[in-house]
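Hey Z.,

So I finally got round to the zinc ion thing we talked about over coffee. Here's the setup:
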Amino acid sequence: MPEITVTIVDHTNSPQLTPLIQKHLSDIFVDLLSTPSDVGVVNIRTTAIKPKADDQDLVLHFVENIANSYVAANMPGPPIKPIDGGVTRPGPNMTGSEFYKFPTDQNGNSMGQFKAVGYAKLAAHEAMHNVSGLNNDKLHPQGGVGGSPPHLPVNDANRKAFQAGLGKIPKQLL
Ligand SMILES: [Zn+2]
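And the result:
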């Protein structure tokens, strides 16, 4: 049975919002993992403290905005573009993924707060980059949650890419 264990790290102090995001995200991961003969198994939790290294396969950081990027603070790299609702940065030793509570447009203007399912789509998109190892040029043309911006439903290309990466998920930024 395809299975994944996911930890959301809440850096935004949003105890009312994160359980809703977690539920939507769990549904998306079940879909990404499922095959014609198997239903995916998703173990998902949210914590406000730094998780232990071997407690999960995948870590998704929920942060306020690009200015408060946890990935940029811990992994050097190019500036994050204002329009990005999240970022995934593969490094030599680990991969870091985050998504934003206050996303902006290409000019850096606030897009307001999203509904929980909107955040789940952003998180699922970064999870696609993280697990599949595909960059923007390879992932975004898939559409679905691989598209930019990400959309539901999940499509077959998303499932194929995600499942192909399952056995080789990189070490995660904790
Ligand atoms: Zn992307």
